[in-house]
Prior knowledge:
The structure holds two protein chains of two kinds. Chain A is of the alpha/beta class.
Amino acid sequence: MKLILAAFLLGATPAMADWAETLAEARGQTVYWNAWGGDPRTNAFIEWVSARTEAEFGVSVQQVKLSDTAEAVARVRAEKAAGQIEGGAVDLVWINGPNFMAMKDEALLHGPFVAGLPNAAGVDLSEGAAATLDFTVPVEGMEAPWRLAKFVFAHDSARAPEPPRSMAGFVDWAKAHPGRMTHPNPANFMGATFLKQALVELAPDRAALAAPATDAAFGAQTAPLWQWYDALRPHLWREGAAYPENESVQAQLLNDGEVDIAMFFDPAAPAALIAQGVLPETVRVFVPDAGTIGNISFVAIPFDAAHRAGAEVVANFLLSPEAQAQMQNIEVLGSYSVLDPARLDDAAKAAFAALPTAPALPRLEDLGATLPEPHPSWMTRLTEEWAKRYTP
Amino acid sequence: MIWLRLLLAGGIVAPVLAGLVLTLAMALRPEASGFAVAGIATSLRLTLVTGVGATLLSVGLSVPLSLWLLPKARARAWLAPFLAVPHATLALGLAFLIAPSGWLVRLVWPLDLPPAIVTVGDPWGLSLMLGLVLKEVPFLTLVTLAAAAQHLLEAHFAAGQSLGYPRSQIWRQVVWPMLYPALRLPVFITLAFSLSVVDMALLLGPSHPPTLAVQILRLFTATDPDARFAAARLAIGLLLVTGGAVAVWRGAEVVTARLLLNRLRKGMRRVPRGAGGAAIGVSGLILGGAAVLVLALWSVARRWPFPAVLPEQMTFVGWQQLVWAQTAGETLLIGLAATVISLVLALIWLEAEDRSGSRMRGGALIVITPLLLPQISFLQGVAQGFLWLGVPAGRMAVIWAEILFVFPYVMIAITGPWRAMDAQQLAAAASLGAGPMRRFWRVKLSLMLRPLLTAAAIGFAVSCAQFLAVLLPGAGRVQTLATEAVALASGADRRLSALYGLVLALLPLLAYGLALGVPAWVHRDRRGMRGER
């Protein structure tokens, strides 16, 4: 057993017989994919996935639209607490960072399964590669990558033509434009990411952020952050007494002209929202000169998933060049692919090259360096500390 | 009657009790104490201010409004749509209306950037209170008018007016206090609801920190496993707060009655106040109408930037895509199931009482309890209980959970007309040889067609409006228009949430329309069946 496990971990060629078995078992299943439902384009993409997997493998996908991924974690946890070991409500979950760490630590996940997916061959899974770490937590085959995420800001170039060039620069900008900038509540992932982005730039020793946050390290590394934030906060929208719930609500504020800056974890999101008529056409992406943090989004399968085989088939399909090119299409989703370009065959390369472009869609070279995510414990503590300091 | 008791005990009492006990058990776990929740004192204050404030305001406004509507049977018909429109729809529309960049500001503001005013999500909870008041005033007004119909009020007015008191003063100081005992329970339902509302608080209330009920929902769904124990503890706390608020209210009734009596004894004749009720009625109608209208506009907008008063480009793509139809179908299915089951239960109950010739003891308690408890204090427990019973999270669980709230309203709506049924008709049927079964099917149901359909429409509207009863027992697998509208409100696309909010209101309005139209058509040549009861 250990040997087989080791073989999986090392990415050995999956036994084709096993996969045929999975395909046979999966036929006719409906996979309940728990995924954040706030983005209609992602929802539409998931419907496209369902149509494709239905046609090709007889597996349909039903999206369970979450307002927060923690809901799915809580559900699986409740099932485990109730002694349920199969027939769980969640088959597949779009997951990241702290939620993944929680599910992995509490043994709520099925796997390792990634190396067993035939299409995983297109992903760089060598040691230390981006797809092997989720917020510095080793993935170890317990979740499959599906889309690339990178933190970016967006500004309305008509109203605010000169956005700040660094996180430190936000203070002066906000002073000059009082009430014209905000960030999502740090209880939300995007709000916490804003704080993390500032932490990565302002921390005295960036290397310390890769290790779990101790009391001492947290105090030392975050001191400049709080100083910066105390200077920034009085000049925020509603003087920092209220915050938008998430980045989508902040995008609404940008469209309404209540603020001039929004933020996304997807460089193509502004272009996509412009195409839908949700944002003004003058919105453009900008990033601090030093770069921004980025990561890969994953899907995981709970230990008690009712349709495990179907979930694996869907996870595998998501890694196909067909699905990845469809996803990267700005008219569909505009999320950058997780496949390693070096591993693509000519047909796949041509499919990516033929994708359309848009004025608000940044070129890869405009996005700057991708900075590593801090260890998830930093985000948890940042959120808690922020709530403690700034909740009236 | 034993089997009826068992049915009600197992179907309604047991889930509520089990839900409470399971929540309490979670709250008593040691993990619950080690969890710090930031801003909890502010949350408590917000809950009390918005919950008690909205109830006080609603009661206060319903007094002049119901006086104004007393002689206007036709104007009263305007209350029904307000009752039918679910909280989520009204809250969404109101948010689009009163936001700093909302429709009202667009109508008057001259600049290109919205004013830096604080409205939706304000830290004082005023927007939330406005939303609650807009929904609760029609409810309280309707029960006031129903209570007034039970008395011969003109004699009181005539006596008062002959002594030189204006009608408004007689109403406020004599008649309304006389009706109040019948209003007490609806007021307490309003109070409990306002203290624990979640969907409206998510859409209109403050978020940093939010009200207790929203904070509890956040904790129940947080990543940290210990958070749900803290959530359970706060849920029990909210239950106690609600109980305390009801007790204080009851005490305040006594004090107010005494003060009022003193004032009455002084014999002051006050200036007649006539316009108050009309102003409240008309402004409520305008606000509610505008809220629905702005939803309709957003649902067909393509680009609608600030400060444009109307959308720059229109599109019907959202409607044509029919994505909403599936959710509407699910809402319809759940609503029909919950309503039909509740209706059947109510009929079994009332018919069993008729045949045994006695009223069931403790019946009122079964009916009213789920409405007097904060939903979040037992629904998470109910969902857990269903899981242990082997009812998987999903449609079945949601229907069952919704019946806990639909059945009381159906029962309340149907009991009065049922007991007021013309006994002579039944006696005549019996003398012609109709047995109990035949009397039930052919006579009672025919006589009761209109009240039955009205009760069904009310039940259906209650089902459509449910949010927590879908979210928690449905485990996210079940999406209704209410949960989708609220979820989409935190997405970037306001046009979609507007569309869902609007469809959410259309379903119950349609049901009310049918409840009015079908009996009118069936009884088109039965004059005796068309009058008021």
